[in-house]
Amino acid sequence: MIHALSREIPVNIRFFNGRVIAFYGDSNIIDGGEVIVTGDTIAYCGDGKDSRYNEVCQGLSFDREMDLKGNVIMPGFKNCHTHSGMAFLRSMADDMKLEDWLNKQIFPREARLTADDIYYSTKLSVMEYLTGGVTGICDMYLMPEAIARATEETGMRCVQCGCVNNFSQSAGLLKEWYENYNKENSLTSFRLGIHAEYTCSEELLKEISTLVHEKKAPLYLHMSETEFEVQGCRERHQGLSPVEYLDSLGLFDYGALFFHGVHVTDKDLEIMKKRSIAVVTNPASNAKLASGIAPISRYLKEGVKLGIGTDGPASNNCLDMFREMFLTTALGKLKENDAAAVDAMEVLRIACSEGAEVIGLPECDSLAEGKKADLIVLDLFAPNMQPLNNIMKNIVYSGSKANVKLTMIDGVIRYEDGAFNIGEDPERIYSEVSRTVERINKEIEV
Amino acid sequence: MIHALSREIPVNIRFFNGRVIAFYGDSNIIDGGEVIVTGDTIAYCGDGKDSRYNEVCQGLSFDREMDLKGNVIMPGFKNCHTHSGMAFLRSMADDMKLEDWLNKQIFPREARLTADDIYYSTKLSVMEYLTGGVTGICDMYLMPEAIARATEETGMRCVQCGCVNNFSQSAGLLKEWYENYNKENSLTSFRLGIHAEYTCSEELLKEISTLVHEKKAPLYLHMSETEFEVQGCRERHQGLSPVEYLDSLGLFDYGALFFHGVHVTDKDLEIMKKRSIAVVTNPASNAKLASGIAPISRYLKEGVKLGIGTDGPASNNCLDMFREMFLTTALGKLKENDAAAVDAMEVLRIACSEGAEVIGLPECDSLAEGKKADLIVLDLFAPNMQPLNNIMKNIVYSGSKANVKLTMIDGVIRYEDGAFNIGEDPERIYSEVSRTVERINKEIEV
């Protein structure tokens, strides 16, 4: 691998002879396409036959020129909802009722987490993102410092959001993090966020509302994931749905991002449109936990902006946007009883481009001059990607992380042909996460 | 790769230091396990500490000894329902209503297929199976000679079944194939099969029933895939469901294998139990085509034997048993509204072991002495498979074809670390399938 080893040593890279899916301009694939990266930025994307290409190339020396041999180059996937630090819990407890799972298995273990535990579990998740072509994540978990350390050291672009609730974090901490973690030119950014309606007292929600108005910022939160949650809110709050109730407190006055959004009413949808609220769908998690199927077809028709996420590794259990893309369209079809619902081309656009917009990374939504160099190369010369009848549908319906040849974030190649460039030995990360598991299991037994 | 290049040159291979999932005896994983293959057969599977191990090893010289370094060795997946020859149609037409898809896109193209077209498309599908750890398939398509040529040359174990209907194949051909293709020690076997109730006249079905009774053999067929199909049968046949109607013709007197089995009634289930009928579920295809979710939980409770299949590459569009395993449990949970339904451990057992039984390959259902050497090695030292809280659940919930290190069929390593041993250059197969696409598209335009 010849590449920039870190963000401190920027390099110039030319990709040529690719099939470019730019998500910019028309939706056609550019055959024989060229992408030029200088430092952390895309300097050129096109067919290499225009005058702009010559201008950009003039005087530029390339540290690496990579023949894509007809493979796809495109913006990376945006995993718009995850809890990376839960990787230590993968396959610890599955095939259980939701409340047993949470109360008996998850919460007791999470209560014993140290910052280092979260740091290594997050690094393990980053490795998985890189193998699957994910170049940006929206992460919600405990101890933002540990998450930021892990994602910045491994080079992952990470939008964190708060997870304030009655039991951890607070409006004060949220404000502090929001002010500290939104620096320019950082891989880390931070959004106002709460866990969910059902884990926050009204007093706490009012403090958050004050902060939302002070910062004029959207609120990120789990919303209407289960019927049980919606029903509980109606019982607690004079028949209001969680969307209605939180809106009545002014929490969505500057917009919001809903994670899940499985069970919404017509009235909820009116509020969502009025407040320009976007939704991140997590189909694998919603299926595995028997929560339901989100109304994707309806969201598309109503113009609700969408992103796609994996949810955390304890509830999914894998962090694979190929699987999520397939499920977004396939479960959308099942829900509508219509094989023509939720077109795969829309799903690919959401996974790569619109997802960037909804988590607040518009600079990473396409391969266009001036955008951040967050991109991937997919191998088309593998049996699951042949023949090339429709490359974009091949990616959604048949693609696999086995097809990811290269993942670049912020101009740095972090993964290529199975090798990682993340500043640490994978074996070390595996063994540290195993140590977390062993220690916590022992503590719980005692 | 040091391996048997073909079945004609059998070799002795020792796998050691593995985690063995044998699907034989108790369900525990054997740590530090050993598997010895001589020719096409498993000569030993265990912890290497018993007297049988010494007996087997005595006087045996190994052509290769492979340190598994703690990775999993287990029986390969059985893809129990597929149409391999449809690979040329992948992503040709998706996101369409079922009848438009069939009548406007699929049927006109299939009418133009030659034996060579089917031969190369089948080879392309075999490549995909090998990358995904599939060691046996149950294939239903046109021109059995072409399918057998492709699967035998590439080394895939293939149970073919007839696809008799009003428009192609016949009872006479079915009888001929059944008599010719069930030779001992062949990778190919053949079962009686029809396309479905809705494509066969009663006259034809009676001819098939005669053949079923002559051969005393079970019938393989598409069954109750869509509500439309069930409703149509009731209208055509005095209110009988397809299960009731075909049973009344004696077609299930020697058992049957149902592909899909999505829409069945209590009465159907009684017949299925009485006739010992097994079901192959195809959850990705059933979701993508909006056909529904099969009642897996009910089947498990009623003791109906199960297999898992991908269906063909035109309707899925990928041939990935990892995706199907995840969907079998996750959609089963959604259907029952119960996160504890359809345990992943059951699903893994079905995918590897019970699937072999239902398609008639009991000699390939486990890693035990005397069984056929159809096995795979899965890499656990990849981010999606760590930590090792529960290896079998990791495989079902988080596994990916990217974790398949090695696929062996009949004692021959056909795929290892990304390289194929199938007697032909992958590029040739890709280009031949592309030629099929181009030619047929041109013929249709004219």
Break the fold down into its secondary structure elements and pairings.
The structure is a homodimer of 446-residue chains.
Chain A: E1 12-20, E2 30-38, E3 41-46, H1 51-57, E4 64-67, E5 72-75, E6 77-82, H2 98-110, H3 115-131, E7 134-139, H4 144-154, E8 157-161, H5 171-180, E9 188-196, H6 202-215, E10 219-223, H7 227-236, H8 242-248, E11 256-260, H9 266-274, E12 278-281, H10 283-288, H11 296-302, E13 306-308, H12 321-336, H13 344-358, E14 375-378, H14 391-398, E15 404-409, E16 412-416, E17 419-420, H15 426-445
Helix pairs in contact in A: 3-4, 3-15, 12-13, 12-14, 13-14
Description:
The structure is a homodimer of 446-residue chains. Chain A contains 15 helices and 17 strands. Chain A has helices at 51-57, 98-110, 115-131, 144-154, 171-180, 202-215, 227-236, 242-248, 266-274, 283-288, 296-302, 321-336, 344-358, 391-398, 426-445; strands at residues 12-20, 30-38, 41-46, 64-67, 72-75, 77-82, 134-139, 157-161, 188-196, 219-223, 256-260, 278-281, 306-308, 375-378, 404-409, 412-416, 419-420. In chain A, strands 1, 2, 3, 4, 5, 14, 15, 16 and 17 form a 9-stranded mixed beta sheet that branches. An 8-stranded parallel beta sheet of chain A has the order 6-7-8-9-10-11-12-13. The first copy, chain A, folds into 2 domains: 12-75 and 367-420, Urease, subunit C, domain 1 (Roll), CATH 2.30.40.10; 77-359, TIM Barrel (Alpha-Beta Barrel), CATH 3.20.20. Chain A is globular, with a radius of gyration of 21 Å. In chain A, helix 3 crosses helix 15 (426-445) and helix 12 packs across helix 13 (344-358). The first copy, chain A, is an alpha/beta fold. At the A-B interface, helix 3, helix 10, helix 12, helix 14 and helix 15 of A face helix 3, helix 10, helix 12, helix 14 and helix 15 of B.
